[in-house]
């Protein structure tokens, strides 16, 4: 029965834990818009919605092997996790830069259009009214050209689709597989463990993912202190 319980823990840990923790970091790393990260986050649910009925029908037919369906689903989830990590190896090293937007110019525009006091906007934006240069973060925005990496959103979206499609046999056929192969007395125990792991997984994912965010993106090739 652990054949279904352990994958449930892993998929909830990855999809509902790790990905939710790192989604904002991925957005900054690859220059994605909020609409794009929203598409990535919804990919899992889209694939699950499309696959639940076919998987339940074909996997539940007489003579169909439920463990085989679940096993193929776990393999698809592994492929999805690989695709999700692929953009990190396809792009160059991460170069942290400051924002390219000059907030002091924005403050001047707001002053001219709204009539707000210069002192209030200066205090709000952290700019020097005399020079017009940002004082926040101690310097000018970076002028280096940033590489457009937003095309990686399709890798993340495809990975989420694979994760959702691979998880659909686990949450449908997995329950009936447990119920059919244990005694009525122990069935409720195994199902309780099964659903408990689906709750423990995201909690563990948030805790572990939060600790992993303390490491620099290219920690093996770049000295984060410099």
UniProtKB/TrEMBL annotation:
Q: Which SUPFAM superfamilies match?
A: MFS general substrate transporter
* Major facilitator superfamily (MFS) profile domain segment(s): 1-226
InterPro entries, per this entry? MFS_dom, MFS_trans_sf, OATP
Instruction: Return the GO cellular component terms, semicolon-separated.
Output: basolateral plasma membrane
GO MF assignments: sodium-independent organic anion transmembrane transporter activity
Which locations, inside or outside the cell, does it occupy?
A: Membrane
Keywords, alphabetical: Disulfide bond, Membrane, Transmembrane, Transmembrane helix
Instruction: Name the membrane topology term.
Output: Multi-pass membrane protein
Carries keyword Ribosomal protein? no
- Presence of the UniProt keyword Transmembrane helix in the record: yes
Q: Which GO terms describe its biological process?
A: sodium-independent organic anion transport
Regions crossing the membrane:
38-57, 69-90, 153-178, 190-216
Q: Which protein, by its recorded name, is this?
A: Major facilitator superfamily (MFS) profile domain-containing protein
